[in-house]
Amino acid sequence: MMKKWNVGNEKVITGDTIDVLLNSTHDELAELSAVYDRLPETQCARKTHCCSMLPEATLLEVLAAFKRLGSMQERQRRGIFARIIEYFFINPARITACPFLVETRCTIYENRFFGCRAYGLWSKRHYDKMAGYNRQAKLSLGQQWRKMGITLSDDVLDFQVPYCLDVEVLNGAMVDDSELVLTSHEIADLSARLSPWHGIFNQQYVADLSFLAATMTYGIQSALRMKIDIVRNLLTNPDRTRLDQIQKNIDNTPLPFGPDRENQN
Ligand code: SF4
Q1: What is the mean pLDDT of the chain?
Q2: Between the CA atoms of 234, 238, 243 and 245, what dihedral angle is there, to the nearest 10 degrees?
Q3: What is the whole-number distance in angstroms between the Cα of residue 229 and the centre of ligand 1?
């Protein structure tokens, strides 16, 4: 049954929205874990190729990651949240690792997204097909930036996470592409119970957790203006000064939801 969420403006996802959703989606989050548990247990060579970018996710998966983030010690959660915002600001200018990756460790491993779990399980054929869609999306992104007078580098536009041959199934039956596709639909259906927020996250925030984090902190218009300014600057002055400045400004950023928000009230 579709729930009715008691949150004000149904166009923008705020810290308040996330708190309301976190407090009312215990069943959906438990069901999401049960879906994940049906995937085979795997081990990999931990080369972390798959972690060279933040994967797209459904809103329910984002909530699971935010819940995990909120349970961390203040210093760690603020540090990772700052990395998420930094990722949003600089990822069109350079390839930067998933912000949840610290050294070679995923800090939200138990709550990592379906995209992370399925990587290494897809067939080469299916993976190449998805990589083709991704390439098209990157090309149209490059055109949008060009309309603003900014040319993204080929390194960024051509970047693809390589096909993985290093994942080994430890427990449970290997799954094929059609089962993985069904699982992704099942997760999308669970997340759709969070409507209208599920659709708003997909359309307005292009299923990008880093975009959501930056807009919850700065507001949509300011976050976008800052991003354009930062990317332009990084591409014309490729030294670390601007990056260090960004890092300093967003370091220790309180989370706009969960424990940091409770402390502010
Ligand atoms: S969430 Fe974790 S497993 Fe997934 S890409 Fe990021 S660091 Fe890697």
Answers
A1: 89
A2: -90
A3: 28
Our mutation pick for probing the ligand 1 site, out of 49, 68, 108, counting the most ligand atoms within 8 A of Cβ, is 108
Asked if residues 190 and 31 have their Cβ atoms less than 8 Å apart, the reply is yes
| Atom of ligand 1 minimally distant from the CA of 109 | 2
9 C-alpha vs ligand 1 centroid, how far in Å?
Answer: 31
- Residue with CA at minimum distance from ligand 1 atom 8: 51
Q: Would you give the distance in Å from CA 152 to the centre of its chain? A: 21
Give CA–CA dist 235/252, Å, rounded: 26
The pLDDT assigned to 160 comes to 85
- 8 or 104, greater pLDDT: 104
* Rounded Cα–Cα distance for residues 202 and 158 (Å): 24
Residue 10 has pLDDT above 80, yes or no: no
Ligand 1 center–CA 6 separation, angstroms: 32
Please state, in angstroms and rounded to a whole number, the distance separating the CA atoms of residues 258 and 237: 37
Q: How far apart are CA 63 and CA 71, in angstroms?
A: 12
156-178 as b/e: b if 16+ CB within 10 A: beeeebeebeebeeeeeeebeee
Would you say the CB of residue 112 lies under 6 angstroms from ligand 1? yes
Report the percent of the chain where pLDDT is more than 70.
Answer: 92
**Rounded to the nearest whole angstrom, what is the distance from the C-alpha of residue 114 to the centroid of ligand 1?**
10
| 107-150 residue pLDDT tens | 999 999 999 999 889 999 999 999 899 899 999 999 999 999 99
Nearest to 218 by CA among 207, 209, 227, 205: 227
